[in-house]
Design a protein that fits this description.
Layout (H helix, E strand, L loop, with lengths): L3 E3 L4 H4 L5 E7 L4 H17 L4 E6 L4 H6 L7 E6 L2 E7 L4 H10 L2
Parallel strand pairs: 1-3, 2-3
Antiparallel strand pairs: 2-4, 4-5
Length: 105
């Protein structure tokens, strides 16, 4: 499944719905955010339709970042049926992200 870009306006419809969604809170100037991007691409390819992966640019969408207490980026928050169930900050390996997702499926 392709990675979906979300905004403050589309957050509810794209993320706070049924199923599992991993949201990457990032910014274009953030070095570690650039490092995690290919890991998320690989993860999206591996997991297919079982998990939606979404990216939210915190510079353009401060409302959602503030709402979920994002202080450092990259922050990845896992949502299950619309509720945040887990959160990691910084660059994580593909295996650790897979484990995080598996824990909540």
């Amino acid at each position: 499944m392709a990675i979906v870009n979300v905004s403050d306006q589309t957050f509810n419809s794209e993320v706070e719905s049924q199923g599992t969604v991993l949201v990457d809170f990032w910014a274009p100037w953030c070095g570690p955010c650039k490092m995690i991007a290919p890991i998320l691409d690989d993860l999206a390819a591996d997991l297919g339709d079982s998990v939606k992966i979404a990216k939210l640019n915190v510079d353009d969408n401060p409302e959602s970042a503030s709402r979920f207490g994002v202080m450092s980026i990259p922050t990845l928050i896992l949502f299950k049926d619309g509720q945040p169930v887990d959160k990691v900050v910084g660059v994580n390996s593909k295996d650790s992200l897979k484990s995080l997702i598996a824990k909540h499926q």
